[in-house]
Prior knowledge:
Blueprint (H helix, E strand, L loop, with lengths): L1 H21 E6 L5 E8 L2 E7 L2 E8 L7 E7 L3 E2 L3 H7 L12 E11 L5 E10 L2 E16 L5 E12 L12 E15 L1
Antiparallel strand pairs: 1-4, 1-11, 2-3, 2-11, 3-6, 4-5, 5-7, 7-8, 8-9, 9-10, 10-11
Amino acid sequence: xxxxxxxxxxxxxxxxxxxxxxxxxxxxxxxxxxxxxxxxxxxxxxxxxxxxxxxxxxxxxxxxxxxxxxxxxxxxxxxxxxxxxxxxxxxxxxxxxxxxxxxxxxxxxxxxxxxxxxxxxxxxxxxxxxxxxxxxxxxxxxxxxxxxxxxxxxxxxxxxxxxxxxxxxxxxxxxxxxxxxxxxxxxxxx
Length: 190
């Protein structure tokens, strides 16, 4: 019996060690990445982006569904090409940046799809003091060599959020509820 328990424990530890060894850690390069959004304003769409963000990806190339991602976005870095609007977006009826200056995302599950390099990534999105699960449609754009021997990975993620679920209710009815988000990531292996 002791031998069976020992073998089972050794097998579990070997599996955990093997999985940890298979993980590659990548850091998002903000100078070659973007976080963009668009939202309806009356009959057209207004676009914007966040210029300050950071994050890491733990990637298992042998089984990408075992990967994970964590990221933060600095709310005050919002840019819609209009300083007055950007300042208004910091106020209580929108992002409430004085109390909640960070937006965070932490994945909880990566699911494969019928397309080899596409995944449904579920995670917790937190901002304005509220955390809700979201699903990102994620495409692996590739792995490759960068400058000075660095290894790179490229990703694109899209989703549509209902801003009211995070208590962002300003601008109604002129401003729509649905926000289309597109994230492009180039990350460097550590």
